[in-house]
């Protein structure tokens, strides 16, 4: 009888503390050993193959491995899962078409989507250059050899605003083998330029082991914004202290002249070319108690990509529309920041999270700001916190430590410039294998380079 082992438990959302783990096991298995981040935590001697494991009080990414052992203690099967790392609803794969041991002649994008959506757009990049896709998602690749590393990146966008991305690498040290698991490591270049991937050998390690670098990317950045409901009015008042921002659609014509005037003043306050913004709305769309703490990624609405190139970044924060919280709804800014940080790691893009608050708003989150700060630092997602006006005692802004206070336009200009610089100086280094972000370190060779977002 064939031996198999698989996790029945789902590790979606954000998880900490004790968590139930259940496995499906077949074959001549005498015991199952559970490991978290490489350390044994439980050993199960008989069915039912279930136990609670404690992930600790902090939010941290974890690798969970279940080893099926025979009567002599030898491993005969294993299963692997990940906690507090992305589990996207859409899975994208790149299939290579090749003859014998030569380089592939073509590649095809395939995908599965749990929501059943059909893609609105597809993109395949060969070494950073778009390849022409036919109606079936297939592209003929340009002539190339296997002497150097080549990277294929597939992107699939859906009408709802969701997107998925997959990178594979082959050639060079991989030869004809294909690396289907790549980990994105965001780094910040303090000075000079980052060398090409072929010159980054010995720059990064995981557990003291040198990592193979497949590619370096500097494509468009993705900024996730958690915005307090009072922010549009507060920012508007910086430029229009004597005029209210009309919220009703019927009154919006009264704003047109002032909107254009404000847009002109803020026209230079932009992010990078092609950078995108997604707004995470800080309130749940479910009734209280309808979901478990591990379901947080489903509790918050996230906007489609918004592009500051169409308007300045502050104008985007003022004018972007979205769901309005009903009376009595809990505002959960810290929880929304944690979800934004997790979402920011799904597409292997340059990233950051921005929380924008007003002076008197309160937070009713499950998580503590310091816990979430550490979590984003572990994920290597830079976090910025703004408050438009001086925070009042007991308000949400007072619990975040370092906060950029925006009292007047020059403060706003300074804050936008810092955000733009942080995104602009980032590069994504793709390394071979799926790795825990906290296991990756830079070596002394990386003078002038640091891990992005590494400081809470």
General description of the model:
- By secondary structure, the chain is of the alpha+beta class.
- The protein folds into 3 domains: 4-83, Immunoglobulins (Immunoglobulin-like); 86-180, Immunoglobulin-like, CATH 2.60.40; 222-427, Rossmann fold, CATH 3.40.50.
- It contains 6 helices and 28 strands.
- It has helices at 231-239, 256-265, 313-319, 333-344, 369-379, 409-424; strands at 4-7, 18-26, 31-36, 39-44, 50-54, 62-69, 75-83, 90-97, 106-113, 121-126, 129-131, 138-140, 149-157, 163-171, 178-179, 182-189, 204-206, 209-210, 213-217, 222-227, 276-284, 300-302, 351-357, 383-388, 404-406, 426-432, 440-442, 449-451.
- The strands form 7 sheets. Strands 22-21-20-23-24-25 form a 6-stranded mixed sheet, with helices on both faces. The chain has a 5-stranded antiparallel sheet with strand order 11-10-13-14-15, with no helix packed on it. It has a 4-stranded antiparallel sheet with strand order 4-3-6-7, with no helix packed on it.
- The chain starts with a strand and ends in a 5-residue tail after the last strand.
- Residues 287-295 have low confidence and may be disordered.
Summarize the structure.
The chain contains six helices and 28 strands. With 456 residues, it is of the alpha+beta class. Helix 1 (231-239) crosses helix 3 and helix 4 (333-344) runs parallel beside helix 5.
Which class best fits the helix and strand makeup? alpha+beta
Give the count of structural domains. 3
* Contiguous runs where pLDDT drops below 50 for at least 5 residues: 287-295
* Cα gyration radius (Å): 24 Å
Strand proportion, as a percent range, falls in 35-45%
């Amino acid at each position: 009888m064939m031996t198999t082992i698989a996790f029945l438990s789902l590790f979606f959302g954000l998880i900490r503390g004790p968590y139930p783990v259940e496995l499906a096991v077949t074959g001549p298995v005498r015991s199952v050993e559970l490991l978290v981040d490489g350390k044994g935590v439980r050993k199960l001697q008989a069915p039912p193959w279930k136990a609670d494991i404690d992930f600790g009080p902090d939010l941290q990414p974890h690798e969970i491995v279940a080893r099926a052992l025979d009567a002599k203690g030898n491993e005969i099967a294993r299963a692997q899962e990940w906690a507090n790392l992305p589990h996207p609803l859409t899975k994208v794969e790149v299939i290579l078409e090749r003859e014998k041991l030569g380089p592939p002649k073509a590649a095809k994008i395939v995908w599965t989507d749990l929501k059943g959506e059909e893609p609105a757009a597809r993109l395949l990049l060969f070494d950073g250059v778009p390849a022409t896709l036919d109606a079936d998602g297939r592209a003929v690749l340009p002539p190339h050899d296997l002497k150097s590393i080549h990277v294929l990146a597939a992107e699939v966008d859906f009408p709802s605003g969701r997107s998925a991305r997959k990178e594979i690498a082959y050639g060079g040290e991989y030869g004809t083998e294909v690396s289907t698991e790549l980990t994105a490591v965001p780094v910040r270049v303090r000075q000079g330029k980052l060398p090409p991937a072929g010159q980054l050998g010995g720059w990064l390690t995981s557990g003291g082991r040198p990592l193979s670098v497949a590619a370096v990317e500097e494509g468009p950045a993705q900024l996730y914004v958690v915005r307090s409901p009072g922010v549009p009015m507060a920012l508007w008042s910086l430029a229009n202290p004597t005029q209210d921002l009309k919220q009703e659609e019927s009154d919006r014509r009264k704003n047109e002249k002032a909107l254009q005037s404000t847009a002109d003043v803020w026209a230079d306050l932009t992010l990078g070319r092609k950078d995108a913004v997604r707004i995470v709305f800080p309130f749940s769309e479910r009734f209280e108690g309808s979901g478990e703490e591990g379901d947080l990624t489903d509790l918050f609405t996230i906007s489609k990509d918004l592009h500051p190139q169409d308007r300045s970044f502050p104008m985007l924060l003022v004018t972007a529309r979205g769901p309005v919280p009903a009376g009595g709804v809990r505002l959960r800014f810290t929880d929304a920041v944690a979800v934004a940080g997790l979402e920011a790691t799904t597409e292997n893009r340059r990233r950051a999270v921005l929380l924008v608050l007003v002076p008197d708003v309160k937070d009713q989150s499950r998580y503590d700001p310091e816990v979430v700060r550490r979590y984003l630092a572990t994920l290597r997602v830079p976090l910025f916190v703004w408050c438009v006006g001086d925070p009042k005692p007991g308000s949400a802004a007072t619990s975040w430590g370092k906060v950029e206070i925006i009292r007047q336009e020059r403060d706003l200009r300074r804050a936008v410039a810092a955000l733009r610089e942080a995104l602009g100086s980032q590069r994504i280094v793709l390394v071979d294998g799926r790795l825990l972000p906290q296991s990756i370190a830079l070596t002394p060779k990386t003078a002038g380079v640091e891990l992005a977002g590494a400081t809470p």
